[in-house]
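Lecture notes, continued. The same structure-token format from the folding unit now serves as the input rather than the output. Read the line below as a description of shape only.
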């Protein structure tokens, strides 16, 4: 069994100074509650992570002391709110190592970020006969917008296939790239399988054809480092609610030269320099893509979440999560009747599984009775399920506040599920 697990997950270094998970858990008040008279075991972090007290308090401070609309006001509260909002953008810039803060556009989440790029870049530069390349493991948010564009423009969607382990076939990717390719959009990490894709290599190969590429980093942002300059990606997007920030927060990064060429995603206030009935002149970046009143409190909360990640140490947190994933893989692989779905060598914090003759929805329901929150279904990745010939999976996804004891609770509950359906 140990040899099997060794193949599933590449060994990563352990935290050098240890990881005080019990101290970290005190930062998350939601974890103190009980569900069905059992201590809450929250293992649905790939859907939405929990929010630390530091972020909650920062949002409350804005509402209590700073609440006002931003950018256009000259009074004290407006200027204070604007400073906090733009300060969050500076934190995002450093978080992803963007060249300029204006390249960081605030959106409600990764889905809106992908749609912004599809409308702003795709509708302007992609036409009949052009080809867009995505992968077989994409979230629906990185499939449907490109399908919509292809239907509108008469373009063609091409798909990088994957193997049974949930790894992209890079030779097949090479075969898809040609003079008709106009755009590539690929997930950094699969939300359904946990696979870490070789995005730097994927970007380099696209750029050999002069093709711009978008990376969906929704699952990478909470667990690993992001360096958009080192990756040399053209666009990168992620959601705040998966990285310990409020819902309604997120970012799409774009290279300034591309953003300046693009059409605005939405029209309205704050994205203009001047408006007449004859012509509108758009604002400079980033305002050009941020029409109307944004989710001010949420984006300030995103900045606070970045502060929190920097305080606790992102590298140590990632090393602990990898150790936790490895332990969970060992525990669940040892249970007869459990099948791990997604066995790529490079993985992050997602453990999808099935139980023989038990529907994942039944698994999720019984685990909930034990106070365990997991996700059951197709995870907005129906093509992944079709490729693997399964209707759905149960998915446990981990964060740095989860514990090995919680993994043991999960494993014991899974054994109870098997007993019930035996």
């Amino acid at each position: 069994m140990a040899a099997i697990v060794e193949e599933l997950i590449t060994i990563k270094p352990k935290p050098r100074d240890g990881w005080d998970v019990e101290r970290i858990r005190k930062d998350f008040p939601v974890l103190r509650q009980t569900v069905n008279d059992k201590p809450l075991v929250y293992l649905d972090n790939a859907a939405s992570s929990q929010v630390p007290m530091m972020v909650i308090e920062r949002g409350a401070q804005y509402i209590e002391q700073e609440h006002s609309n931003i950018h256009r006001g000259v009074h004290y509260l407006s200027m204070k709110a604007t400073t906090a909002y733009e300060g969050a953008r500076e934190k995002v810039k450093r978080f992803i190592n963007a060249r300029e803060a204006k390249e960081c556009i605030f959106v409600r989440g990764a889905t809106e970020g992908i749609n912004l790029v599809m409308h702003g870049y795709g509708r302007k530069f992609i036409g009949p006969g052009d080809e867009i390349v995505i992968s077989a493991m994409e979230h629906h948010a990185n499939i449907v917008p490109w399908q919509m564009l292809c239907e509108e423009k008469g373009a063609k969607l091409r798909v990088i296939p994957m193997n049974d382990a949930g790894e992209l076939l890079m030779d097949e990717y090479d075969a898809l790239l040609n003079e008709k390719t106009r755009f590539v959009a690929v997930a950094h990490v699969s939300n359904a399988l946990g696979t870490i894709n070789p995005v730097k290599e994927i970007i380099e190969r696209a750029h050999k054809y002069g093709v711009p590429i978008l990376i969906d980093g929704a699952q990478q942002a909470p667990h690993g480092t992001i360096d958009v300059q080192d990756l040399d990606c053209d666009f990168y997007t992620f959601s705040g609610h998966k990285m310990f920030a409020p819902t309604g927060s997120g970012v799409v990064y774009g290279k300034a030269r591309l953003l300046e060429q693009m059409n605005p995603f939405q029209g309205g206030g704050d994205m203009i320099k001047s408006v007449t009935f004859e012509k509108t002149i758009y604002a400079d970046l980033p305002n050009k893509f941020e029409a109307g009143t944004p989710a001010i409190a949420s984006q300030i909360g995103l900045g606070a979440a970045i502060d929190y990640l920097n305080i606790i140490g992102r590298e140590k947190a990632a090393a602990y999560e990898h150790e936790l994933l490895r332990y969970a893989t060992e525990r669940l692989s040892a249970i007869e009747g459990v099948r791990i779905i997604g066995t790529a060598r490079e993985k992050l914090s997602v453990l999808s599984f099935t139980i023989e003759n038990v529907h994942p929805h039944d698994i999720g329901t019984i685990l909930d009775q034990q106070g365990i929150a997991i996700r059951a279904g197709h995870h907005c990745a129906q093509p992944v399920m079709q490729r693997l010939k399964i209707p759905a999976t149960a998915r446990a996804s981990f964060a740095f506040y989860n514990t090995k004891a919680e993994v043991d609770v999960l494993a014991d509950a899974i054994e109870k599920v098997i007993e019930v359906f035996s």
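Point for the exam: The radius of gyration is 22 Å.
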